[in-house]
Design a protein that fits this description.
single chain; alpha+beta; 2 helices; 44% helix
Length: 85
């Protein structure tokens, strides 16, 4: 039992050295990106400024997809009282 514990501790320590986090390596620091925001009736879309009209198109298509899905899967009514009929 003690050997298993020692193995797990060593494996955990070695995995920390092996693991790496994401690194944004394209020559541009992510903090320097300019962000745009579009608010629709249902969503808030945040996208990099360089996407331009692509962000607006995405927001429009997201709203359209939501409308189509709601016709297929209507929202369930949630009653505030404990009685359901």
């Amino acid at each position: 039992m003690k050997q298993k514990l020692i193995f797990l501790v060593i494996a955990g320590l070695l995995s920390v050295q092996i693991a790496s986090s994401q690194y944004y390596d394209t020559g541009q620091d992510p903090a320097s990106l300019k962000w745009m925001q579009i608010k629709t009736g249902r969503f808030t879309v945040i996208y990099p400024e360089k996407y331009g009209a692509g962000g607006m198109l995405y927001a429009k298509e997201l709203d359209e997809a939501y409308s189509k899905l709601m016709s297929l899967f209507p929202e369930k009514k949630i009653y505030s009282s404990g009685c359901h009929t």
